[in-house]
Amino acid sequence: MNSSQARNAYADDRQQTTEVENPQVIIPVIQEEVSVDKQVVETGKVRISKKISEREELVDEPLLREEVAVERVPINQYVDAAPQARQEGDTLIIPVMREEIVVQKRLVLVEELRVRKQIVEAHEPQSVTLLKEEVEITRTAADENPGGRKLRGKP
User: Fold this and answer.
1) pTM score, two decimals?
2) What DSSP designation does 42 have?
3) Residue 138's beta-bridge partner residues?
4) How many whole angstroms separate alpha carbon 111 and alpha carbon 79?
């Protein structure tokens, strides 16, 4: 066999062998999955308490009120017409009239009322109850997972 024939024979064998040895190539495809577990863990506690205390406090605030002082001034004069009320400074003067029966009828100014306003300051201490709230917060550390629950599933 010459060298050219030998090469052709080798090539023919190789083609047949390749076709017979590798009829189909299989490539595996892999997929990974994850599983997540959760666990509830107590990390501490908070305790809140509230205390209400009462205290008495004396309140002494001045209170204003108006009082009226009435001064009666006798006049006893006969007048032809009833005078009008009038203001003199801080005094209001109100005429008081009466009729007398005589042979002739006349008006007699009996008196004038002089009304003045006065401002009087008075202290009236009163006891007032006030409430006050106080809050106390106490934190405690958690034990080694007491009552902790374990949760399963995907997030």
Assistant:
1) 0.34
2) -
3) 47
4) 12
